[in-house]
Amino acid sequence: MLASLDLSVVAASLPYLFGEGMVFTLTLTALAASGGLVLGTGLALVRLSGVPGLTHAAKLYVELMRALPLVLVIFWFYFLMPYLGAWATGAASPIQVGPFASALITFTLFEAAYFAEIMRAGIQSVPKGQSAAARALGMSYAQTMRLVVLPQAFRNMLPLLLTQTIVLFQDTSLVYVLSLTDFLGAASKVAQRDGRLVEMYLFAALVYFAVCFAASLLVRRLQARIAVVR
Amino acid sequence: MIVVEAVSKWYGDLAVLSGCTTAVARGEVVVVCGPSGSGKSTLLKCVNALEPFQQGQITVDGTRVKDRATNLPRLRARVGMVFQHFELFPHLSVTDNLTLAQRKVLGRSGEEARRRGLDLLARVGLSAHAEKFPGQLSGGQQQRVAIARALAMDPVVMLFDEPTSALDPEMVGEVLDVMVELARDGMTMMVVTHEMGFARKVADRVVFMDGGEIVEDAAKDAFFSRPRSERAQQFLSKILAH
């Protein structure tokens, strides 16, 4: 069976697979991870703020997002967003949100829920005395968080944040439901066009494995280096 | 400098501080001692509002601590505090630990903050360690850096919360030496400690607390030679017996 594999199909499609597919995948991963981290950190701070209404709202958001399948959120957001936008701005017709913007916002909102939990654990891992010391030096709440607590929380949680980003990298393949072409989508298109499903999917699996495995190794090395700090 | 008037604090039914009244005059060194759980650390943390209290008032250099109009960060910037567990920022070098609050809170330039920080680092005898990280220093060294960090803010008063309790015995001396020198230079200090040797050497007054109350507030010599209360006598006989 292996003798019938035609790897020239893979070779011929490399520029398309990486130049378009992989670039899309990496762009979406990077943007959604950064946005998710910022938003997630905000959610974690709100959840730990102890302000009754806000704390519960943040908790509800996180629990809700984590309870829903990602595909459902992608669909839901894509079809509902134009109407929500129209309602919010008072426009007569649904606001047009392109599939990429829709996917990016969805992934950011979804990842924020996971990053929020990681950052919450990270903030709680910083001893209380650290924020007491910062406040005793006259720092405001914002300065205490920005200069003392969050840098330590981020460091402590870096391995988990990267692991979550690896999961995100794989999950971005779900954008096929919005007819966007990521790396897997590109491979899939070539596979259908040339009737070379086995070769293309085999190759795609190999690439995902290589990227994720390399990233995991990096995480493990980081873990070993960061563990020295305290 | 510090006036504590009838301060009470409680968690539900549990009274942590009951009607504490005392004062620390400018240039005075007051040692606060007492058995664990007597509320002495809590009282100290009330002075710079790290702990809230329900009743009474504390005034630091003319500023009321329990007052909505008081800018607490500004007040705290003028009150130096040294913690039992040092609480240096582990992600920053010693120099950055010394300069961070000077720059961000006092608005000093990087150059000015650095000069002030390194001056004080020299004063606590650790100039050689400016570029190290806290994790690379011994406990005694970390606590001396923490004292320098607090002094870098040019505080009007220094609070010490059991500064030697978390140290290995052989490192207690180096930290106490710094504190003795500070006291002799005229710094106003409020020190929670079990180090009675330190109290005998530099304290002007000793405040003895038990069960959240100030049981005795006396001049040093009077406290050590003839403590009035039975509880202070018991406490002294226990810790001075060794």
UniProtKB/TrEMBL annotation, chain A:
CDD domains: TM_PBP2
Transmembrane segments: 23-46, 67-85, 97-116, 160-180, 200-219
Chain coiled-coil ranges: none
Lineage: Bacteria, Pseudomonadati, Pseudomonadota, Alphaproteobacteria, Hyphomicrobiales
Alphabetized UniProt keyword annotations: Cell membrane, Membrane, Transmembrane, Transmembrane helix, Transport
Residues in ABC transmembrane type-1 domain copies: 22-219
Similarity-based family: Belongs to the binding-protein-dependent transport system permease family. HisMQ subfamily.
Organism for this UniProt entry: Methylorubrum zatmanii
Location in the cell: Cell inner membrane; Cell membrane
Topology class, membrane: Multi-pass membrane protein
Cited InterPro entries: AA_ABC_transptr_permease_3TM, ArtM/GltK/GlnP/TcyL/YhdX-like, MetI-like, MetI-like_sf
Protein name listed in UniProt: Amino acid ABC transporter permease
Pfam families per record: BPD_transp_1
Top-level taxon in the UniProt lineage: Bacteria
TrEMBL record, chain B:
Matches recorded under PROSITE patterns: ABC_TRANSPORTER_1 (PS00211), ABC_TRANSPORTER_2 (PS50893)
UniProt KW keywords: Amino-acid transport, ATP-binding, Cell membrane, Membrane, Nucleotide-binding, Transport
Pfam families according to UniProt: ABC_tran (PF00005)
Parts of the chain that traverse the membrane: none
Subcellular location: Cell membrane
One Gene Ontology molecular-function label: ATP binding
Record domain ABC transporter: where: 2-236
Membrane topology label: Peripheral membrane protein
Entries under InterPro entries matching the protein: AAA+_ATPase (IPR003593), ABC_ATPase_HisP-typ (IPR030679), ABC_transporter-like_ATP-bd (IPR003439), ABC_transporter-like_CS (IPR017871), MetN_ABC_transporter-like (IPR050086), P-loop_NTPase (IPR027417)
Homology family: Belongs to the ABC transporter superfamily.
Name this polypeptide is given: Amino acid ABC transporter ATP-binding protein
Organism annotation: Methylorubrum zatmanii
